[in-house]
Amino acid sequence: MNQLRISAKALAHNFWALKSRLSPSTKLIAVVKANAYGHGAVAVAKQLEALQTDYLAVAYVAEGQELREAGIQLPIMVFYPQKAHFKTLIDYRLEPVLYSKQTWHAFSELVQSMTEKYPVHIKYNTGLNRIGFLPEEANWVIANAAKSNMSLISVYSHLIESEGPRPHRTSDKQINTFLEIKALHEKDTEQSPWFHLLNTSGVYNYPEQQLDAVRCGIGLYGFANHPEWDQSLQPIATLESVISQIHHIQKGETVGYDQGWVAPKDSVIATLPLGHADGIGRHFGKQKGTVCIGATKVPIVGNVCMDMLMIDVSNCKCQVGDTVQIFGNQQSAATLARQSETISYELLTGIGSRVFRIWEP
């Protein structure tokens, strides 16, 4: 019925396209949080492990636990671990990002009696103002690391707008701040962490700041937040549905809840078994979003329902059972997202569990 077809070949292409922009010594941290941006974390992680990526990264402990239970052996960093899940994190050999004195104290106390130092990562807030130690806390981190039972594997921050045109005053300020933090850590003879700042867009826009590692998420799945950069990547997913029923309606009749669309003329309407419970939100309705039947784009009309949406196929030859592409080679997820003023991240990660994931070589 509804399926998300995922190309292993395209994933490998994107991995090597990103690697080709890095120096041989720069590590690639492959971000597979949010079910690998909606594509299926276990399958994606297994291929990335086969491709010999250096690290995996997830948002929360449960995501890392799922990968370990599936047999993934790569080191896995957890971006936003919660105190309540620290024990599980240790049980599954996951590496936490510590981002505040509270997380530091709680985790330090938990690992203090271990025979070996536990690997951790440090996040600094250089302007995104989401999570992270403040730059002025760097000396505190360094001093406490020296007397803790933790090993600093890496130190990092995140740019606010890495895809913005250069020169970019805010990004330049963040970079300078992070380089100052880096210099402080490098003075410490007890710890020798590696440093990273760039996400996918940063790899393209700030190649001179690749440092010891980069974190690539959306790029692995085929997008780089810039039309020119996107050309070097291949979207790995195609979302397809099928026509369940076709209605011939007269001018003035309405379609969907709340009479969301009024036919301006005698029209042909097709229904797809795909709705906002599957990740196609109501904001794609009312002729904002389009789907493709072959090479023909047709609009979504009326309000998207929980389990269904309707499309105007008045100018398109089709029949019940025909395949309809929501995004893929006819229009990308980024194109569909822009139609409704959202982003590819939201569209991809929102594809629901009722949509079958099909892994293709």
Describe the protein's topology.
Blueprint: E1 3-7, H1 8-19, E2 27-31, H2 33-38, H3 41-50, E3 55-58, H4 61-69, E4 76-78, H5 86-91, E5 95-98, H6 101-111, E6 118-123, H7 138-146, E7 150-156, H8 169-187, E8 194-196, H9 200-205, E9 213-216, H10 227-230, E10 237-242, E11 245-249, E12 254-255, E13 261-262, E14 267-272, E15 290-293, E16 296-301, E17 309-312, E18 323-327, H11 333-339, H12 344-349, E19 356-360
Parallel strand pairs: 1-19, 2-3, 2-9, 3-4, 4-5, 5-6, 6-7, 7-8
Antiparallel strand pairs: 1-10, 10-18, 11-14, 12-13, 14-17, 15-16, 16-17
Overview of the structural elements:
The chain is α/β, with parallel strands linked by helices. The protein folds into 2 domains: 8-223, TIM Barrel (Alpha-Beta Barrel); 237-360, Lyase, Ornithine Decarboxylase, Chain A, domain 1. The chain has 12 helices and 19 strands. The protein has helices at 8-19, 33-38, 41-50, 61-69, 86-91, 101-111, 138-146, 169-187, 200-205, 227-230, 333-339, 344-349; strands spanning 3-7, 27-31, 55-58, 76-78, 95-98, 118-123, 150-156, 194-196, 213-216, 237-242, 245-249, 254-255, 261-262, 267-272, 290-293, 296-301, 309-312, 323-327, 356-360. It has an 8-stranded parallel beta sheet with strand order 8-7-6-5-4-3-2-9. A 5-stranded antiparallel beta sheet has the order 11-14-17-16-15, with no helix packed on it. Strands 18-10-1-19 form a 4-stranded mixed beta sheet. The radius of gyration is 23 Å and the shape is elongated.
